[in-house]
Amino acid sequence: MMRRSLLLLLLALPLLVSCRGRQGAGMPEALPEPPDAPTPALFEPEFSQQAIPPEVEARMRGKSYPPDAQISLSELRYLRLSYFDFEGRRQTGEMVCNAAIAQDLCEIFQALYEAQYPIRSIRLVDDFDASDDASMAADNTSCFNYRTVPGQRKLSKHARGLAVDVNPLENPYINRSGRVMPPAGEAYVDRTRDFPHKIDREDLCCRLFLAHGFSWGGAWAHSKDYQHFERVK
Description:
Elements: H1 2-25, E1 47-50, H2 54-60, E2 76-84, E3 90-98, H3 102-114, E4 121-122, H4 132-137, E5 140-141, E6 163-165, E7 173-174, E8 180-181, H5 204-211, E9 215-216, E10 224-225, E11 228-230
């Protein structure tokens, strides 16, 4: 009887070992700890001014700063200005202006940024080969460009870095003969209409520039330049 019990026990041992092995195989393995997700870079807004850096000077020469320019680079400043674009994204753009208005522009654009005021882009006009037409057609906000007033021989305030054009497509220039610049701005000539990005006297952008001693081209009597703010030095 004892021998029969021992024999049954020996026969059962492989089955017990097999069952335990299958149970162990069915248990899920411990998953490795996931790596720490990278912390997204924080956007640091800038509203800074400095003398024209050599790399910016190289971009300007022969474009916005031609060989016959009657203003020295020491009179100009390079600005970095943060803003919200039309899609609500934070961006930092570039602008060159006269040193006399550099601090004003830093303060104006900081106030616009804090209000999340939308601006299409802020780029040097040199990115458009110093073509005012191309810069306006791209709805680009800019300041310095050594050029004359369209259709005239006298220098523009932009030639001294004392004028800024903001969102020019939605706020076009209309000369005395009715020519619209940029041409696509024809859709925004009727200022009795309400539409996004329109600058008028109640607009924050206009109010800030006026408070800092600029005049607005939208108030001119014979022509209208709704994009344009200038300082009389």
